[in-house]
Design a protein that fits this description.
heterodimer, A: 111 residues, mainly beta, five-stranded antiparallel beta sheet, 11 strands, B: mainly beta, seven-stranded mixed beta sheet
Chain lengths: 111, 115
Amino acid sequence: GQQVMQIPQYQHVQEGEDFTTYCNSSTTLSNIQWYKQRPGGHPVFLIQLVKSGEVKKQKRLTFQFGEAKKNSSLHITATQTTDVGTYFCAGPTEYGNKLVFGAGTILRVKS
Amino acid sequence: EPEVTQTPSHQVTQMGQEVILRCVPISNHLYFYWYRQILGQKVEFLVSFYNNEISEKSEIFDDQFSVERPDGSNFTLKIRSTKLEDSAMYFCASVRRRGSTDTQYFGPGTRLTVL
């Protein structure tokens, strides 16, 4: 079945450093979605990318969708302590819109 | 902004007991989902539900699990005889229409602890 891989599993950065997480799907995706989960919280939708090669920005966050629509990345510029949490990518399956989640990248920011 | 709500926030139960987790999806949404997340692991799909029937279910969703929409607002997940490995966060999600570009909105989750 469809698999979504995400790396790294864990990243610990100094406040002000940049952070990137990468997501790869075993199949071409119609879209990819990114979620943030704070410790003890639930996944909160951040963004959805639909078009091949699409790049979207939300303040310090930059999201990219690969040309082949099989990979994606999330880049945070100048991390802050409020950025801590786990970042998940998720893609819908071909025949349904259930989401297949990546394993997530845990971000810790040291001030 | 409308949101998905879930109750209880935390449920502790003895192994072998039945539990019912409740969700109130966003009111104009038509498709509903249950996901679970074992501590420290990724979010896993359990089941999707539309028009009062299951649309799709995962291997995890065995005969011990059932879902129901008993009225116009609630969406429930029942585990008949809980096992230790059922301990997890259970998230309900809803989406307005079935289409792969629609956003799924997640509830805050129910933490289930099976002793």
